RNA sequence: GGCGACGUGGCCGAGUGGCUGAGGCAAGGGCCUGCAAAGCCCUCCACAUGGGUUCGAUUCCCAUCGUCGCCUCCA
C-alpha cells in the first residue's frame, strides 16, 4: 500500500483508507483570476500522477478540487479592467481546464466553486461564532486562533513564534483583530463589491473557509488525503484545519504537499512577484508531455527548476519513448512482466518515488528494445509492462500520427530508391522529409515517418 | 528572531554507513545500416568547505560558507 510523507506528523506513513478500495482526496485548486503558471502545472501534474497511480492500482478515487471564484484578486482585476468579476472567473476557469486537458491532467471528479457554497460557509461561520471560537468586528468575522489547541501543527510552528515573525505583507483587518494571528472568515463588503447576505452584514467569505465546507460536504469527515502546494501549508491549510478543529470535526487524515517550481536562479516562481512564466507559454513552445516527464524524473517534495535545458532533455526522452511506441505498436497486449510491475509498485508506494519508477521505465524500455532486436520471447511481457507504467503515470506515448499522402508517398519512393540502389535519390528524399519536420526511420520492414 | 529546505559528475536529477556508488540528457567509441535515423553495447564517474564519530562517510554529528522558502489570503 501507498506510503506518503504526511506533513502533519512529518513522517512517511501509510495512507490509511477510511473505506477499503476507495480513496477520498481534496486538492486545493486555483483562484481563477489569471492564466495558470508553472506552479499550478506542477501541483496538478503531481496529483494527477497520484490519482492515476491509485486508479491503476484498482482503487476508486474521488478527487475533489475546488475553484476559488470569489477573492480579492478577482475583484481587483475586475475593477482594473472595468468588467464584471464573473467575466474574469468564467474565462479564467475555461482557460484553466483547457490548459489542464492539454497537460493530460484528468478533470477532478468534483469541481466545487466557492460561490456555490456561500450559504454553507455562512452557516459554518455562524456556528464558530456561536461556540465562541469566532468573533465579529467592524470589517468582518475572525477566527480566534488562540482557541485552537494545536494551531501550527501543519506549519510546525508555535503560535508564539509565528507572532514574533516579521512578515511584511499586508494583513487584512490587522487593525481590528483581537490577535494578529486571527484570520478572516467573512469580509464585509465595501460599496460596489460583490456580496452575499449574512447576519453580520453583506460580504464575502474569506479564503480558508470554502475548502473546509466543500471537502467535508463532498468527502465527509475524516477524508483520506488533503493535497496542495507547499505554499498552501501555511496559512491556507493551517487555517482550514483550524476551523475544522474549532468545530470539533475530524478533518483530513493525511496531508501531502508538493515542492515549488524554482526559476533558473533557484528562486520560487511566484505569481505575486509577477515573474510568471506561464503554463500556456510553456505548452506552446514545448511538448506538453515534457513537463510531466520532467516532474516524473524529480521527487514531488523537492524543488524543481523548469528551464530550457530541462524541458528539452525531457522532450528528447519522449522522442525515444515515442519511437519505442512506434516500433512496438504491433506487439499484441500480453500479461505484463510481473517482476517489473512489482518493482514499479515498490517505488511508487515509497512516497511516490517517481524518479526510481522512471528509472525502471527506462530500463524496461531498453530491455524491450533489446528483446525486439533479438526477437526474444520476453518482448510482449516487457512491452506490456511499459504500457502499464505509462498508464499509471498518465504518460501517453505517440506511436504514429496521421501521415499525409504526399509524405507517405515520399517514404515509399525512398524505399523504392533504396531497393534500386539509387542511394543519392534516397538521400535526397530523406533530406526532403527531414526538412519538412519528419523523423525518418528506415528498418528492414521499410521506412516510417513520425513527427 | 522563529521554523524549514537545499548544495552530487558537462547539464538535469535520485540514493545509500562499506561489496563502490540510479536514471536521463549531452559527449566519445563500437555493433547495426548503402549512408543515416532508431535501437543495442561500452566509456566518461560526483557527492560545498572544515572538523568530529567510526575499522570505514557522499551518507551520522558539529561548525562554516553559499542558495532558497515560510512566518496570515501565492500551486
Keywords summarizing the entry:
single chain, 451 residues, alpha/beta, Rossmann fold, Four Helix Bundle (Hemerythrin (Met), subunit A), 3 domains, 4-stranded parallel beta sheet, 4-stranded antiparallel beta sheet, 13% strand, RNA-binding
Could you walk me through the main structural features you see in this protein, from its secondary elements to its overall organization?
- This protein is an alpha/beta fold and 451 residues long.
- The protein has three domains: 3-262, HUPs (Rossmann fold, 3-Layer(aba) Sandwich), CATH 3.40.50; 286-393, Anticodon-binding domain of a subclass of class I aminoacyl-tRNA synthetases (Four Helix Bundle (Hemerythrin (Met), subunit A)); 405-450, no CATH class.
- Helices cover 46% and strands 13% of the residues.
- The protein is built from 15 helices and 14 strands.
- It has helices at residues 38-56, 72-81, 85-103, 118-130, 159-164, 207-218, 230-247, 279-285, 288-296, 308-327, 338-349, 354-374, 379-393, 405-419, 423-435, and strands spanning 3-6, 11-14, 22-27, 60-65, 134-136, 140-143, 183-188, 203-205, 225-229, 255-258, 261-262, 304-305, 439-443, 446-450.
- Strands 4-3-9-10 form a four-stranded parallel sheet, sandwiched between helices.
- Strand 1 (3-6) and strand 2 form a beta hairpin.
- Helix 1 crosses helix 9 and helix 14 packs antiparallel against helix 15 (423-435).
- The longest helix is centred in the C-terminal third of the chain and has 21 residues, at 354-374.
- The two termini are 39 Å apart.
- The protein binds one RNA strand of 75 nucleotides through helix 1, helix 5, helix 7, strand 11 and strand 12.
